[in-house]
TrEMBL record, chain A:
One of its GO terms (cellular component) is plasma membrane. Keywords: Cell membrane, Membrane, Transmembrane, Transmembrane helix. This is Putative membrane protein. It is a multi-pass membrane protein. The keyword Lipid metabolism does not apply. It comes from the Bacteria.
UniProtKB/TrEMBL annotation, chain B:
This is Uncharacterized membrane protein. It comes from Streptomyces radiopugnans. Pfam families: DUF2243. Keywords: Membrane, Transmembrane, Transmembrane helix. The chain crosses the membrane at residues 23-45, 65-82, 135-155. InterPro entries: DUF2243_membrane.
Amino acid sequence: MTPEHVHSSGAVPGPAVLLAAAALLAVACYLLAATRLRHRGDIWPYARDLCFASGGAALASAAVVTPPGGPFTAHMARHLVVGMAAPLLLVLARPLTLALRVLPPGRRRRALLAAAHSRPAAWLVFPPLAALLDVGGLWVLYRTPLWSASHDRPLLQAAVHFHVLAAGLLFTFAVCRLDPVRRRWGPAWRGAALLGAGAAHAALAKSLYAAPPYGTGFAPADLHTGARLMYYGGDLVELALAVVLAVQWYTAGGRALARSRRRSGAATVPAAARADPPHPPGARPASGCHPYECDRERRVREGHNPQGSHIGQRISMR
Amino acid sequence: MTQPAPHPAAPPSRPPLRPRRSLAVCALIGAALMAAVDEIVFHQLLNWHHFYDRSTPPIGLLSDGLLHTAELLGLVAGFVLHADMRRRGTLSPAHARAGLFLGLGAFQLFDGIVDHKVLRIHQIRYGADLLPYDLAWNGLGLALLGVGAVLAVRAGRTSGPPGRPGPSKPPEPSR
């Protein structure tokens, strides 16, 4: 899948076509599942379909199309798409949530849920560990003989590219925390992991500018363009991840603020509230919207099922 | 209903301003903004700085990467924290302005002294006498810091100890 490979063989190599086909198959499955969900009466924003489809398309095209530029620059453009941009688009579409919702209650759904809530999965999505697996893998690839060794071993090369994709997906998944998993790490952990990963990525990009990967000889101009691409391309994706985190924090704060305002509004209403017996905390406030309504609105906004129950779904289907 | 009584559903009292937090958040924005300006103007538009200088020691490389990522995250975090304070009505504008200038100046000075001189990540310009550039760079940093300090002192004076600006208003009971 490296440009040398594509150029030397003339034809598209096997693993690349396989990866492209798998990506397109995943997109087809996602679109099918989202359509089924909508037919059932659930709300699933079209933006997520768009995200997943563009992520899958980016992955497929990175696998089979050789980007312009020298060999190292082309490799780096691929690395950016496969390891950073496509994972972000795929993760933003919340594929795990979709799968859990569309699978009928049964063995497969239970197995998926068990896997998502398992202890190893909880450790894998620990943000610093995911960052280490992702950026640490890059340091190993470029600063050990691994890359030059993978040139004439297609299987090793496929494994390396699979690792770049898988680790990118894992890191993005851990930082964005959009799908339900066992342990939910707070914004501080995720932000710190993003900072550490970004710093290690930027330092690696600058060091590649000065020294080529172990055992390779690229033209200096090619090396410089590739290193700059890695540096600034990484910035863009990090910025997008930071925006995802920030928007999550801001909307969560807005919900908490609205809640506390409703409560304090209920506490200071003079006549009506005093006539009633005191509410336990969390009870229906005297003013503001009904908690069920608010909850329902929130769930609809987040793309959950508006009917709120499976009975509702059945009725809407008939 | 001659006298408009306070509406029962309206928030009973505005929350107290948070001057220190306003200052810190805007200082974060200022520092990140200055870093972004440095990156865009001197690295990209003028091409004065080098992307990578061979004389950079490894520790400089690492600190540069950390600082660069912190700048990106700081910009996003600063704006979202600022929006949050505005939403809650706890932003003190005078302290925010002071913080912005302090952040701008502090980053400029830090970049000029630590990055350029101590860690030697890159220089302001190559193939020229560096002294005037260094003086102008750090002088601008000092000037911005000075403006920030003056604004901070004035903001502290007009608002007094933690509370609302304007001494005419009685201090509100803390909730």
